[in-house]
């Protein structure tokens, strides 16, 4: 590939898994499935036109108990795939006609994310140029460029002289500007106050509230009004430092072609957008006979056209949802994937189960991810000059207790580690820096036992605390 440098990084499946491994322990199967799905969308885009339209995304359902990493996988995936991504909770939606958000709003949200993504990309592209233009504008204020003086002289000799003077002046001016430009660039002028014209988006003076659900119809009154009312210029006085930033922003806005951004955003959304539907099990049938089953099935029926592929109106234009990738997730405690309406099941051909986490997994989760809990707490205390030192048997004991409480009270997966650690470290976090004189706090199995044993033994107590 010739222009690899400007192209964004396209991860191979194994690279995606490797990235996810940095944050999520185990769940290899789920990682593989999402990695393949992501890569397939890139592959699809390389396929020739006719067939490309036929290739459907590999929508996935992640099935697994609570707190084992379903949402976490989606979250990390979003970060690394640079694709427009939204996460929605299926239970938030209600059937058309009921009060609540309609399902199409997730596509509108996705486009919004897409527009911001492309805008940010464009912004970095034009940043250098915008900064340069801003500096020129500041120079114009500091050292106004000279205008060509009109020469009305008829005398040929006199004219000659005038031209020479002009040239000389222009040369001087240019030199001073060069000199000043360096000073502005180096920040030497940062504290100087200057006055300049800044373009301000006129405020309409009131929040325009559309009729009920207007935002959901893809119409933004505020924006329409904003484009009718002409932009105003306003005099501002700030330091050079601030002016450079403000003017650079302004120049950036001018350099970015918003129509092109919107068009590209829609294209990006259609071809690489991703929607994560969490808690899909909450809208699956199951537990027949009670609860608002009608409405749940209604949500599924509303979801279907979007997942199958349809056109959704957004304020940036029509979005075709055919190739958006959907990843659904749910614990499916009460209901099963087979309780979903058959059409919807058919649209999620890939099902992956996530495993419950073992004691061994907990040890890993506590210590290895880049954002591992123990690293987080250590970093927090380090700011106070205290070193938190967990011994191996201490970590093992925390993991063991987490497993035990999960078994006895309720299995909430890795979330249990959060509650246990806050309880375990409560006193230290409170006492530092007043009462802890030594600069290292050792936490071993004995310490963990002393702190937590009593609570773990008392079922009622652990229900509330751990
Ligand atoms: N396998 C794992 N590796 C590392 N951290 C994990 C793992 N599983 C869960 N966690 C941590 O536990 C917390 C909860 O995980 P997550 O939000 O992914 O749960 P979930 O599977 O979506 O559960 P739910 O079904 O309740 O939504 C997160 O803070 C996450 O970092
Ligand atoms: Mg979740």
Task: Please give a handful of descriptors for the protein shown.
alpha/beta; 17 helices; binds magnesium ion; binds adenosine-5'-triphosphate; 466 residues; 5-stranded parallel β-sheet; disordered N terminus; 53% helix; two-stranded antiparallel ribbon
Description of the molecule:
The structure is a single chain. This protein is α/β, with parallel strands linked by helices. The protein has helices spanning 13-21, 28-46, 49-54, 70-81, 105-142, 156-186, 221-228, 240-255, 258-272, 293-308, 342-347, 359-367, 373-382, 392-408, 415-431, 445-457, 459-465, and strands at 60-63, 85-89, 193-200, 232-239, 274-278, 311-314, 317-320, 325-330, 350-353, 387-390, 440-443. The strands form four sheets. The chain has a five-stranded parallel beta sheet, with helices on both faces. A two-stranded antiparallel ribbon has the order 3-4. Strand 6 (311-314) and strand 7 form a beta hairpin. 29% of the residues are buried. Residues 1-6 and 204-216 have low confidence and may be disordered. The protein binds adenosine-5'-triphosphate (ATP) and magnesium ion (MG).
